Fold this sequence. Notes:
Largest sheet: 22 strands, antiparallel, barrel
Structural class: mainly beta
Oligomer: single chain
Helix content: under 10%
Number of helices: 11
Amino acid sequence: MPGVAPENELNEQDIAAYGADTVGDLLDQVGGAADSSGEGPVILINGRETTGLNTVNDLPTEAIRKIQVLPQRVAGRLGERPTRRVINVVLKNNHRQITGNAEGGFATAGAGRSYKAEINLLRLKEGNRDSLVFRYERADPLFESDRGIVSDPLTTPYDTRGNIFAATVLGAEIDPALSALAGQRVAIAPVPAGNAAPTLSALAANANRPNFTDIRDFRTLTAGKRSFSVNGNIARQWGKTALSLNARAEWASTDSQSGLAGVSLFLPAGTPFSPFTRNVRIARYVGDALRQRGHNANLEFGGDFTTPVGGWNLRLAGNWQHLAARTDSQAAFDPTLLQAAVSAGAVDPFGALPSDLTVPRRNFSRSRSDNASLRATLSGRVLRLPAGPMRAAVTATLRTDRLNGSWVFLSVPNVTSYAQNEAALSANLQAPLLGDMSPIGNLELDLNGAIRKLNRIGTVEDFGAGLAWQPVRSLNLRGSFDMQRQAPSAQTLSDPQIVYENYRVFDFVTGQTVQVRYITGGNPDLPVAGRRIWSLGGTYLPFSNANLTLTAEYSSRRTTNLQSTLPPVNAEVQTAFPDRFVRDANGVLTLVDSRPVAFAYDNSDQLHSRIDFHGSLGKPSQKRSGNDSDGAFSFDGRARFNFSLEHNWIIRSVRRAQLGLPEVDLLAGGATGYGGGLARHTIRVSANLAGRGLGIQLYGTWRSATLIKAGDTPSPSDLFFSAQTNVDARFFADLGTLVPGSKVLKGARLSVAVTNLLDSKQRVRDGNGLTPIRYQPYLLNPLGRAITIGLRKVF
């Protein structure tokens, strides 16, 4: 923005060293330096706000002149929350580009194949922009048999042919006559293949050697996915007036499997098909794999208009999103009619079962939502103070959310409908207290406030204040306080329920891995959350002639009525939310309702620090190895490098589910998610080096060890998660630079990316030093090490 010096800036050569294909890929890599608030950065194009990430994500990096990371106080001038960072993407004035991109990936452990194809059209001319992107992505399903997953031990011995056991209790003698023929006590007898009327002699032949069906062939670790999207942008500029429009459409589908439907049929003695003198049971898998298919259609339209009004700037922004989602799930059939037919002697339980009596029950979920907003912001100078101009931004917002949904769970229909209207007025004021002539440097006060009225909830308010101090040009310090009241989103309150069959969870109460019926969806009873945030941070540039940036920020958050997904079921969680868990007569967990819940409070303190360094190696040559129009790297003969080191230290994190219950320390065993406890330390390292048409990138993440406790006292069910290091690598080559005489290779880039280069696996142990079935390494990270090969061509 005019008059605002960036805290960090990347030029074309710096950007090329990342080897990123699009602005979205580039922001993923530099985003840590840009924003640590968790709210996401504000993105500008040529100093103007955009309608959203859809506007910038697909822009090819060859069209960028530079990336600027601006001070936090700039967000307040734009009418945004002052704690957010701002990134300005400066585009070239004139640039045309057609880009084709194709990628294929696979896992080194086998399977896990994925594919991607993209066509990107872009035209820049004197501040005007036209772009259109077509993208197709596909990922094949990954099955448990592809990773050698150890299946859960089942109390009932299901099999596609069937196993016979005593009707009283599993493990009891089936029939003395059968034991006599087998010469041993028989507790389980497999049904012979192709024998629809087995005799006792046939059953005795393989007594106590049950049939076994490998259920892993019918369970997916990751679903198969397909998606197709179109994203278009138009931007026009007339002097200081600008208009941009964005439209995006995406269609996506998923397909997963959750095993086979098992049925335990009671066969009375004396019925025509029973060779036994006692009542028995037959355990069989029936039908094909239980499948769940999801389909989503997403349409988005956005517009942004800016123009000067007097000495102020007026911005009008509107967005509309339509989302249609459908999920179809199969559940085990109701055995009542089949059991009646077997008991009456009308159906042979050993043969092919009637298809009309074994139709899986169908659960489905449907939802349609429309979200629209209109926002007007007026920003500019209010008056001239001795230290500089006072600036203000006033924003009026209208928003409406509509959602209609329906679902069927075990043949019981349900409907949901939700409508929420919001009117909001917010203001930001920036007042310079001390200017350049002050002996202690610049000092600026930020004030911001908002009031929002929601028809279903009432009125909620936000208030914040910040103080920015720049004692010297190389040092920026900032302190802020924010008090917010946050209403739950329409989706969080009213999403229809989706049911997952045979969902694997670890029950910390019993120390067992079990398969449950798992429910997700919205919770209409969630309250308004309150949040207070104190933060203190700074940015320091120690050298004027080196692109080295040091940043650090301490933040303290106090949240009441925190909205969160249901944590894993340990003793504390079950006590706090007893209605969310169902157990059978033997105490085995059978159902988990994981819809969002509200915690009485959640308090945390953390320190985030980062080092960024980029530059060149060697002396520049007279001859450049590329130019601005052919898509090649624009190096000046020197190698370029980018390096960042980031550390996040959670000093304190405690949570209380309900008043009257004990406070839980999330850093000392409190449950947050099934994937592990809360890591106290996280370190991320990124290093890129590129030159002469070749480049390499390395990304590393280390997380400290964590713990989830089953209860207040040490227990064998306590789980210990080891520290983990993950490294990703990417190699890329500008083929046009390596073979300068080839017209075919001009603008072509070949890349090889390796995710999880070291094939790192999370190690989990219980109190006895064993790994629970739920925490097998490939259940936590199904893909493992994966390699993606891509070819990108600029025309």
